[in-house]
Amino acid sequence: MPTALLTGITGQDGSYLAELLIKKGYRVIGVARRSSTVNYERIHHLLDDITVVQGDLQDQGSLLAMLEEYKPSEVYNLAAQSFVPTSWNQPALTGDITALGVTRMLEAIRFVNPKIRFYQASSSEMFGKVMEVPQSEETPFYPRSPYGVAKVYGHWITVNYRESFDIFAVSGILFNHESPRRGLEFVTRKISDGVARIKTGKAKELRLGNLEAQRDWGFAGDYVEAMWLMLQQDKPDDYVVGTGETHSVKEFCEIAFSHVGLDYKEFVVMDEKFYRPAEVDLLISNPAKTRKQLKWEPQVSFKELVTMMVDADVARHQKS
Ligand code: NAP
Ligand code: G4F
């Protein structure tokens, strides 16, 4: 039975990847940082099938100790301070976790067992003020937030450890992926939750920022399969993962509200508080390499994703 160690197990992607790896017969070790109240909401249903260990990307010793103890053959580094607006309020913390945390994990691998295969959760946010449309593995980076800058560091240190120490280290450059398990502050979940609150009479409006921003949105459950595939290849490489389609925040709102018989124009209020100091206006992937080499295709369409998220939030609000 192969062992996989996942940082970020309590996050959206950690929960879907753990489900996938359990199905594939892995022993799954999930790393969670200590907090005064446990936040296992997304992995509650998995607790009998995984081992949760305490550790933190800010603490080198904890990473060394867990690799020594559990001897994984694959490490998926999903942990990060992942919310872009927070990265302007806490830029140094974001750099310490999202950038230097990658080096700490790679150092732990180098010292404990350089044969461990390593996946780094890189981001389309690295393309920022895009230098090319659509964006591929060859597109130069131009990050627009401290988060994006930290992810560029995480990407290049991964490439550097591959080239310097011959570690099987891959960088998955994933475009936005969402689900009913997405954090409530991200725009898609904020909209699906907002629609559900309005529909169930708990709210009268939804306050949002830039409705013109465009993203390449897919379903998180599909994207974790691509992560796993990257670590099963003969050689380590970098891959762009996305749908190849782009949609605006406004389009997301139109579909989400109309799915429950409402017109978004009557409820969405634009609020400058949610505008960013520097915006990423347009992201759209060119996933040709991933489709060809990994034979990976997204299964859930944009409309199915929006309606899945709205249905889940409506059901949740109807119960509570
Ligand atoms: P998420 O839901 O925000 O989860 C982030 C995870 O990181 C949580 O489990 C969090 O733990 C953990 N974490 C934060 N700081 C940590 C630390 N110092 N030590 C250990 N764990 C820590 O993010 P996600 O959407 O699942 O994304 C997974 C990864 O993919 C992230 O690296 C993100 O930046 C990247 N990514 C995401 C997308 C996307 O669209 N979702 C696209 C491209 C790249 P707590 O629960 O304790 O906070
Ligand atoms: O949902 P978002 O906060 O996601 P963003 O900034 O694209 O970042 C996400 O995707 C990245 C991959 O490209 C990940 F690396 C990152 O960790 C994260 O998962 O915002 C999407 C867009 C932005 O342009 C934002 O300005 O939606 C716009 N937006 C408009 N109103 C809003 C809002 N975003 C948020 N969070 N809240 C709003 O009220």
Describe the fold and architecture.
The termini are far apart. Helix 4 (91-112) packs parallel to helix 5 and helix 8 (249-259) crosses helix 10 (302-319). By secondary structure, this protein is an alpha/beta fold. The model has no long low-confidence stretch (mean pLDDT 98). The longest helix is centred in the first third of the chain and has 22 residues, at 91-112. Helix content is 41%, strand content 16%. The protein folds into two domains: 3-177 and 219-241, 3-Layer(aba) Sandwich (Rossmann fold); 183-216 and 245-283 and 300-319, UDP-galactose 4-epimerase, domain 1 (Alpha-Beta Complex), CATH 3.90.25. Helix 5 (146-165) links the parallel strand 5 and strand 6 (169-174). It is built from ten helices and 13 strands. It binds NADP nicotinamide-adenine-dinucleotide phosphate and ligand G4F. Ligand G4F binds next to helix 6.
